[in-house]
Amino acid sequence: MRRFPVSRLHAAILLIGALGISYEITLMRVLAIAQWHHFAYMIISVAMLGFAASGTVIALLRRRIEGRERPLLAAGALALSASLTTCFVLSQLVPFETFRLTSEPAQLRHLLILYLILAVPFFLVSWCVALGFLIEPRRIGRLYFFNMLGSGLGAAAVVALLFWVRPATIPLVLTTPAALAFSLAAGGLGRRWQLGLVIPAALMLAAGLTTRGQQIRGSEYKGLSHALRLPDSRVVARSQSPLSELTAVASTAIRETPGQLSGYPMRELGELPEQVGLYFDGGSVSAVSRFDGALEPFAFLDYVTGALPYRLIDRPETLVVGAGGGIEVLSALYHGARHVTAIEVDPGVHALVREELREHSGRLYEREDVTLVLAEGRGYLEGRPDGSLDLIQFALLDSFSAASAGVHALAESYLYTTEAIQLYLRKLSPEGVLSITRWLKTPPRDAIKLFATMVEAAERAGIAEPGLHLAFVRSWNTGTIVLSRAPLSEGQVVAVRDFASERGLDVSYVPGIRRTDTNRYTVLDEPIYYEAATALLSDRREQFYRDYAFHVRPASDDRPHFFRFFRWRSAGRFIEGTRHGWVSFIEWGYVALVATVAQAAVMGFLLVLLPLIVFARGSGSGLGAAAVYFGALGLAYMFLEIAFIQRFMLFLAYPVYAVAVVLTAFLVFSGLGAYAADRRLAAAGGGEGREPLRLVRVAVSLIAAFGLTYLVVIPAVFRAAASWPDPGRVALSVLLLSPLAFFMGIPFPAGLQLVSDRRSRLVPWAWGLNGAASVLGAALATLLAVHLGFRAVVVLAFACYAVAAVSLGSIREWTEA
Amino acid sequence: MIRKREGPAPAAREAVVPTLSCLFLPLLFMSAALQPGQGFGQEAPDGGFREARERLVREHIVDPPFGSEYAVRDQEVLRAMRTVPRHRFVPEELVRAAYEDHPLPIGHGQTISQPFIVASMTELLGVGAEDRVLEIGTGSGYQAAVLAEIVDRVFTIEIVEPLATSARARLAELGYENVDVRHGDGYFGWEAEAPFDGIIVTAAASHVPPPLVEQLRPGARMVIPVGPPFQVQTLMLIEKQADGRVVQRNLMPVRFVPFTRAE
Asked: Is A218 exposed, middle or buried (0-12, 13-18, 19+ CB in 10 A)?
């Protein structure tokens, strides 16, 4: 093998690739803390269209740029190092507020300003890479390799960094590698250029340093902002991980309970124990109660709906999913659980309860009868022996306000799919019960969907009459549904009814229920939950799914969007409600996703295709073929990446490492594919001849072969390896993904080389087009997965690749013409 | 008039709000002044606002656009809605929007509720001239003022000190002598003045504070609006019956039938 040629340019491009992805991930965290996750996603996606804009700008200014590529690249890197902090600080000055978007037109203006500010760094990243292609026009794949390698390493580095550094500080941290990229890029320039660039560099660095201590401007409507306004509140601890920023706030006015305490006799049984609120990304809260080993102060936990399963089973071996601050663990202990396994996915929670809040929480997680496991619930359960649990209890996983705003509609959740419920049933002992509590929304939807999921899962698990295994109890704001592995005995049915009437709760379903038994304590206009439950257990189920205003069909592993309830059929009614201001039935996550797709499509057209139509008229039909080729590749790549990474997340069970390792491997192997393609093309005399076409055809065939094989084989492989230790599963994931990623890395640089050799001025444009298509592809992949499932997304990706392969032939003819 | 106060935001942000307001508000006011019937600017102190208020009550509360079955009919409530100057309870820069049927931000993560919701909740409480009402979450003080027009005494508790202070001053300035504003934690109610003939809790928590239910007189009602900021999805109505039994009703401010077809 020849010596690996690492030049300054390559090192600079590697750093810039790393900066682009690090900045993207950082901004995502920042915006999720400041506002809400789904809007964070939308804002970043649109800002990333800056990528596309710079390709177009370079293509249009090609004549003026010619001969000045190197200094302009250096200038771009310099501007990038300045923009990382500047744009971040500016973005924090924009008084954008998600909740006011529907009522205040000014918020749209703020949003637009935010887009423009945040697009700048992405514009500059893309500017540098596109100029890099112009500097090394014969070795496109090699440069692309360094860019991808940088992206992969950057993703891993920023995830590691997020364990130690607050997201608000990371833009400043990133200034150093950006300055390094600048000095590498400026290294070969003459003195005049260097002086002209170094002085502003020093000034910008000085300006960047003034942003130390920059805070994220959190929405005043988020839980943490409210908590900090309480009279005696104080922050007692902080912790962070790539998953969340955790703030522990103490105040006598924090009193979080897992739902309504119906009829709790506070005078007799006492006030609630003192609490510290754990705020995740400034939003949803989980309470850590003061605990000294005495369980009497937790009597209030017998007054919430979630206490239901303890009436059905004695001294259960219990698993709590989403343990958080530990309130469900305390409930299990209060109700006499033999042993509790507490599953928590957020390493920040671990850190706090083991350190700063150790004494406050009474060393809850160090008791002999409690085991704390850092894992994702489903993944942990996959590896647990069958039949080993008497009770699987789901804590209320997010806050009441977040639930009612519908902010999770985008999130995939493999906890609430029919496959997941079947898994839980397998892990239960013959008498065991599964209990899930959800915040209720108005109009009803979550609990109905959950009930439907349990019914269908039970049927698939071979339970002939699910109606004999289910009970559903509700207060005004929570609903608890219990699914028992054995049919509920007469005694258990009586226990459900007694529990409800003692506590002033409504029974919405229990075997043998009658309409008159329901809707007594929290009266709804119609006993909707009862009607839904009975319809779902009858042969009217399909009709119910069709007729209900919300999407309440169960989620599956292929379409794991439990929190999506939006239906286009009801859109008119939703909009009507929002227009009148008082009511919002809209799932914001879903709306934000549709808005992202729409904006990416429109902006992509305006930024990439329109300028081309206007300025490159008369270039022939090949230009259209090029647009199709690079557009289709951008879509296809993101479709496959997102669909497969989703599947692997489920398998890896631990999202933080999973994202980092799998994403890094994916990008690096794609980079290697590009490098290999470059070597082939260089050996064959560049993009001339038939070599690029042959390469792309082979790559596309192999992508389809691997992809299809995985679709079929992967579920079985994952089941077999479910109980492997973490490193084993990570290694297996990388092994499986790497060949796919490798071949996916080939078509783009091969096509770009073809263009570069004959019509080099179009290279930046093609690069920008691919960027725009990638942004659109990522959002579109999610939207398609919501409606059609991930398998369909994979199949569509193959279709896009096929289209690309065909259009490459036309490009070749055109470039040779 | 109140000044909009910012929460724990960095100082730089505070500079931006006035700057942006300086740029855009003159434009907004100019456009408002050009519309006939809006009556801003040089007219008599409450002249234009009274007309706007009348129209708000007429078009959004007496005859709401989403259906007459949601109309507020209680004459005392309507009189109160016609009387209380809502524009005195909103931040200066939003005065123009004071008589639109929308919730508005008042800073500190709080809002002034939508007039239709205020009227509906007041009607739901079913209180009269002899009654004493407790409110948890004073906010701007608007709901307290509406109640003060109708009932004998209003006791209101606000946990955010600057809001409590400004609401107290505003209510005094407007001559509402029958309102007591207290800064503090509303969880335990106002024991010394209990029981109450009606309670309004303006922020939904994870549970209804048991002490508040205790301080409700048998036969009286508690109303709690539920929903994310700027939205009300449900009105929780808690009725303490004569025998002390508690029944809760989940009312939607507007009916939304989740079934698309009759079965």
From this structure: buried
Neighbours of A790 (CB within 10 A): 24
Please tell me the distance in Å from B130's CA to the nearest CA on chain A: 29
Residues whose CB falls within 8 Å of the CB of residue A683, separated by 6 or more in sequence, listed in order: none
Active site residue B113: yes
In whole numbers, what is the pLDDT of chain B averaged over residues? 82
- Among residues B68, B113, B120, B140, which one is catalytic? B113
Residue A537 is classified by DSSP as T
How many Å lie between the alpha carbon of A470 and the closest alpha carbon of chain B?
23
Q: Does B30 touch chain A (CB under 8 A)?
A: no
Helices (H), A537-607: 541-547, 571-579, 588-604
Q: Between B24, B208, B263, which is nearest A260 by CB?
A: B208
Cross-chain residue pair A259–B206, CB shorter than 8 Å: yes
Q: What is the CA radius of gyration of chain A?
A: 28
Residue A577: per-residue pLDDT: 66
pLDDT tens profile B54-80: 999 999 999 988 778 889 999 999 999
Q: Touching check for B10 and chain A: CB below 8 Å?
A: yes
Burial (CB count within 10 angstroms: exposed 0-12, middle 13-18, buried 19+), residue B181: buried
For B65, phi then psi, to 5°, come to: -65, -15
Does residue A738 belong to the interface with chain B, where contact is any CB pair within 8 Å? no
Name the amino acid, one letter, at A183.
Answer: S
DSSP B67-87: -GGG----HHHHHHHHHS-GG
- The whole-angstrom distance between A303's CA and the closest CA on chain B is 11
Two structure tokens written together for A87:
């744009």
Closest CA to A439 of A394, A479, A483: A479
Q: B218 vs B129, B194, B221, B248, CA distance in Å? A: 18, 12, 9, 14
Taking the C-alpha atoms of residue B158 and residue B149, their distance in angstroms, rounded to an integer, is 20
User: Residue B107's closest chain A neighbor by CA?
Assistant: A220
Amino acid at B235: L
pLDDT digits (tens, 9 = 90+) for B236-258: 999 999 988 899 998 877 766 66
Degrees (nearest 5) of the Cα angle B127, A478, A354? 120
B66 contact A CB<8A: yes
**A338 touching chain B per CB within 8 A:** no
Judged on CB neighbours under 10 Å (0-12, 13-18, 19+), A207 is: middle
Q: Tokens for A705?
A: 């072969």
Question: Cis link prior to B195 (omega < 30° from 0)?
Answer: yes
The two tokens of residue A182 are: 């600048």
Say if residues A64 and A71 touch (Cβ distance below 8 Å): no
What are the residues whose beta carbons fall under 8 Å from the beta carbon of A24, sequence distance 6 or more? A44, A48, A122
Burial zone of A319 (CB within 10 Å; 0-12 exposed, 13-18 middle, 19+ buried): buried
Q: Please tell me if residue B219 touches chain A, with a CB cutoff of 8 Å.
A: no
Q: What is the pLDDT of residue B34?
A: 38
* B234 chain-A contacts, CB cut-off 8 A: 442
Q: Per the structure block, which two tokens stand in for A460?
A: 């698939």
What pLDDT, on the 0 to 100 scale, is given for residue B23? 37
**CB spacing of B206 vs A257 below 8 angstroms:** yes
pLDDT digits (tens, 9 = 90+) for B191-207: 999 999 999 998 778 89
Asked whether this complex has an ipTM greater than 0.95, the answer is no
Chain B contact present for A256, CB below 8 A: yes
Residue segments in chain A with a per-residue pLDDT below the cut of 70: 1-6, 188, 190-197, 200-201, 203-214, 397-412, 577-586, 615-621, 654-656, 658-659, 686-689, 815-817
Residues in chain A: 817
Q: Which of A225, A275, A578, A582 to mutate to test the interface with B (most CBs of B within 10 A)?
A: A582
Q: What are phi and psi of A250, to 5 degrees?
A: -105, 135
Instruction: Name the residue facing B256 among A230, A255, A585 (closest C-beta).
Output: A585
